Amino acid sequence: MDTAEMYRRFAVREVRGHSPAYEDLAWEIAADARLLALIDGLPPIKRQPNLLLASVRFLGGPHADFGRFRAWVLRHWAELRETVLARRTQTNEAGRCASLLPVLAGLAGPLALVEVGASAGLCLYPDRYRYRYDDRPPFGPEDSPVVLPCRTNGRVPVPARVPEVVWRAGLDLNPLDVREEETARWLECLVWPGQHERLARLRGAVRIVGEDPPHLVRGDLNESLRDLVASAPREATVVVFHSAVLPYLEAEERDRFVATVRGLPVRWISNEGSPRLPSVLAGLGRDLPEDRLAFLPALDGRPVAMAGPHGEWLDWLGT
């Protein structure tokens, strides 16, 4: 799709109902020829709405009024372009653990977790968060600063407790250390304006991870995954998982990764906005939500649910 359509889809499918400020900006950018020309001068992977808008906020630019936003972007384009090129979205959303937990809890424990595309590793701590599915009693550590609410539909196998995790490690081209002030501030800029609960959740997760940092390895998922899996304890069930990673890979890289993970002695949980989503849901007699972005949690390549991008809802596909 072209850049204007990308920003319109961002307005309709991602931020509508979640961030009025970003929804307004996205629509205005999509209709502004001069801004679109500047954005089109970036590499395709760097034209993402969230990356551009977060970079403006990171540099102290406005986001509440399009006129001020436009003037600021035009005046600071050289600096903004440099920031966009240097940064990655790496939206480390702890809320996705609510989508992953019913799948994780169904595996034989204890668990050794390996997250691909781990960013700062916030999703490596599903056992440190507290969960609230619909109006069921919450569970998880009572003193956790992070509570993850999730609306469910269908026969979601909600567990009674969090799984036992005995080892955790992450793999990323650019691992982030939340103990660095600038890194934590960048992650906060990736949270959309107006999402106060999500921001509080991020800060709570950063606190947990900062007190007990995970083992994060800098490397390519197709070059370093085997060695990282081999270092996991043998007495545990090794789980390789990832969320919103595959769209950043070329088709050949995706195919290679799938072949690699299928050849390892691991369980594999993916949580992606899969291009197969429409056909998969059609085969199950389900409709793809047209007004919201949906992910497709899968175990060992078999889709089990449809989920919100931030773990806010979970629609189980099984009976």
Question: Can you tell me about this structure?
Answer:
This protein has helices spanning 3-15, 20-30, 33-40, 49-58, 66-75, 77-86, 97-104, 181-189, 196-211, 221-230, 251-262, 277-283, and strands spanning 111-116, 130-133, 147-153, 165-172, 215-218, 237-243, 267-272, 296-299, 302-303, 305-307, 313-316. With 319 residues, the chain is of the alpha/beta class. Helix 10 runs parallel beside helix 11 (251-262). The mean pLDDT is 91.
Helix and strand arrangement:
Layout: H1 3-15, H2 20-30, H3 33-40, H4 49-58, H5 66-75, H6 77-86, H7 97-104, E1 111-116, E2 130-133, E3 147-153, E4 165-172, H8 181-189, H9 196-211, E5 215-218, H10 221-230, E6 237-243, H11 251-262, E7 267-272, H12 277-283, E8 296-299, E9 302-303, E10 305-307, E11 313-316
Parallel strand pairs: 1-4, 1-6, 2-3, 3-11, 4-5, 6-7
Antiparallel strand pairs: 7-8, 8-9, 10-11
Helix pairs in contact: 1-2, 10-11
The helix-strand sequence is HHHHHHHEEEEHHEHEHEHEEEE
> Which residues form runs of ≥5 with pLDDT under 50?
none
Helical proportion, percent range: 25-40%
Number of helices: 12
Using brief descriptors, characterize the structure shown.
alpha/beta; 7-stranded mixed β-sheet; single chain; 4-stranded mixed β-sheet; 17% strand
